[in-house]
């Protein structure tokens, strides 16, 4: 194949239209296949046609007239209109090169169809126009940063809210604009941090307090292009008036509370007594917190038990004091009500002056408060006191873990005894299955062994939200015996398993547990030479295993029964 044929093959497979024009006659002396196919001509039809039969826009006509007059010049990336064989028009981007062949000038025209590009540009421009209209119509100030932290867009409300100078906007200095925003915020470091986290996946919400007293609510979320983060959108709302209204509301509420507190002398005495009771409860909580910190820092369970006993002893006296105050306050309310009822019953025999005095007394004494509010406060106080008393009881149990004077305890009898004690509490929540793999005796206080099993069974019942299943298994190995309590409950998250035996740590709701049950069980088992392990999966349940030293080898007999 000749080199000329190869060149023609290359030209025919070019994606561009290529036309070779003789400048004096403006005749097309050569064309590639792409030109013929794009314009709809047969390949042999283009040679011999005038270039002005195809290029028909006014600038094209002027250009070729200059060429005819000997003015040759190159053209780069100029738009034009080409007439097709069916008389339709297409928009092209063309370039013209002046070349020389055998000492004579020729013009090489290269063009490509840009109709699709124009459509894409029009759609893009329409989309951008709609986006700009949407940004301007929203009620919030909008700022869009690209993945490099540069300003991609903002609406007029944003620039007005922040008072961005026109000079900064005209200069398009993104760094200066962002620095201008941060300088207006009291916590400027926070503002700079929010504006710099442009590729974060988090959706955030912050309050920005400006130096001029205004308050802006800033919400930021990532901007995605497909699955890729390409920037971040910040939405700002001026909530200054709302903040002021809330502050005024709080001030009015405080004033109302102050007026309520300025009651008559009798009610002030009642409130003082309630405040005393509240202070006592706070003191109890403070002491419990101090005890918790000391317990968590202790390295040995024995020292923790001594500390728990001391805390329980110290709390007993405040509890008795609070209980006494509650009884006295309740009796005081009853006496006041009886006195008021007695006065009202004797109105028929009283003088107008005495009636006026009674009316004044009724205004001074808030009877509705004595009948209802005071009773509710007393009930709530007694409920809180009962919770504290339960904590004290747990602390006492916690302090009595001891290993002296051990006796042999039968494992199966201990399990059955515990089941009988807690049966009423767990029978409505779970089916209990016993799978005893042998009978053995361990060296342990029977009461303490029962306390361990009771805590594990009650915890298993609490873990089950609907009626489920609790399985109790026993088994043994060389020198030890084990007990497993498995529940079909909600399970324990992995991040909490490491703390499950810590004193005062609990996964139960506030007020539903002290966090001492498992810690107490852990201490009892350790003191008797054993250990406890736990395995749990969220949504599948938990298995607690207690391993204890074996006094004698387990018997060969096996038993399995179901308690329903």
Automatic annotation (TrEMBL):
One Pfam short name: HATPase_c
Reaction it catalyzes: ATP + protein L-histidine = ADP + protein N-phospho-L-histidine
PANTHER family on file: HISTIDINE KINASE, SENSOR HISTIDINE KINASE
Domain Histidine kinase: 310-552
Keywords: Coiled coil, Phosphoprotein
Organism encoding this protein: Rugamonas brunnea
GO terms, molecular function: phosphorelay sensor kinase activity
Keyword Transferase: no
InterPro entries tied to this protein: HATPase_C_sf, HATPase_dom, His_kinase_dom, HisK_dim/P_dom, HisK_dim/P_sf, PAS, PAS-like_dom_sf, Sig_transdc_His_kin-like_C
Protein name, UniProt field: histidine kinase
Listed NCBIfam families: sensory_box (TIGR00229)
Enzyme Commission designation: 2.7.13.3
């Amino acid at each position: 194949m000749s080199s000329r044929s190869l060149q023609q093959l290359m030209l025919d497979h070019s994606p561009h239209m290529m036309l070779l024009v003789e400048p004096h006659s403006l005749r097309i002396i050569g064309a590639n296949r792409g030109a013929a196919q794009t314009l709809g001509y047969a390949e042999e039809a283009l040679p011999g046609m005038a270039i002005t039969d195809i290029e028909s826009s006014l600038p094209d006509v002027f250009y070729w007239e200059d060429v005819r007059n000997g003015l040759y010049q190159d053209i780069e990336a100029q738009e034009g209109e080409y007439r097709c064989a069916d008389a339709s028009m297409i928009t092209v981007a063309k370039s013209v090169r002046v070349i020389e062949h055998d000492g004579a000038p020729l013009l090489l025209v290269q063009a490509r169809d840009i109709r699709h590009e124009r459509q894409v540009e029009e759609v893009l421009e329409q989309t951008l126009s709609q986006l700009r209209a949407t940004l301007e119509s929203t009620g919030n100030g909008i700022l869009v940063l690209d993945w490099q932290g540069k300003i991609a867009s903002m609406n007029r409300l944003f620039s007005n809210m922040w008072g961005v100078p026109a000079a900064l906007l005209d200069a398009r200095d993104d760094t200066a604009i962002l620095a201008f925003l941060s300088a207006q915020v009291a916590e400027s470091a926070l503002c700079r941090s929010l504006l710099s986290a442009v590729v974060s996946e988090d959706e955030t919400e912050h309050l920005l307090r400006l130096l001029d007293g205004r308050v802006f609510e800033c919400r930021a979320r990532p901007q995605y292009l497909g699955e890729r983060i390409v920037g971040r959108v910040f939405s700002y709302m001026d909530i200054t008036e709302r903040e002021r209204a809330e502050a005024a509301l709080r001030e009015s509420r405080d004033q109302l509370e102050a007026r309520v507190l300025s009651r008559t002398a009798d009610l002030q005495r009642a409130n003082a007594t309630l405040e005393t009771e509240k202070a006592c409860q706070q003191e109890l909580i403070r002491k419990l917190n101090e005890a918790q910190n000391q317990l968590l820092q202790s390295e040995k369970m024995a020292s923790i038990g001594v500390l728990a006993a001391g805390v329980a002893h110290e709390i007993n006296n405040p509890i008795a004091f609070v209980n006494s105050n509650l009884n006295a306050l309740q009796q005081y309310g009853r006496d006041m009500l009886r006195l008021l009822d007695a006065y009202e019953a004797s109105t028929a025999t009283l003088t107008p002056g005495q009636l006026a005095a009674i009316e004044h007394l009724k205004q001074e004494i808030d009877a509705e408060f004595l009948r209802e509010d005071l009773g509710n406060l007393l009930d709530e106080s007694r409920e809180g006191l009962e919770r504290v008393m339960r904590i004290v009881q747990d602390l006492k149990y916690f302090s009595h873990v001891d290993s002296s004077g051990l006796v042999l305890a039968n494992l199966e009898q201990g399990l059955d005894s515990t089941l009988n004690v807690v049966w009423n509490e767990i029978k409505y929540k779970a089916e209990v299955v016993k799978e005893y793999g042998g009978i053995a005796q361990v060296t342990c206080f029977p009461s303490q062994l029962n306390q361990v099993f009771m805590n594990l069974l009650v915890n298993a019942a609490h873990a089950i939200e609907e009626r489920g299943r609790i399985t109790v298994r026993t088994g043994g190995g060389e020198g030890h015996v084990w007990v497993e309590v498995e529940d079909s409950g909600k399970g324990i998250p992995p991040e909490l398993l490491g703390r499950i035996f810590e004193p005062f740590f609990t996964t139960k709701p506030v007020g539903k547990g002290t966090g001492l049950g498992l810690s107490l069980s852990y201490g009892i088992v350790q003191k008797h030479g054993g250990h406890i392990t736990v395995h749990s999966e969220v949504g599948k349940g938990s298995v607690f295993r207690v391993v204890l030293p074996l006094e004698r080898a387990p018997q060969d007999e096996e038993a399995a029964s179901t308690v329903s």
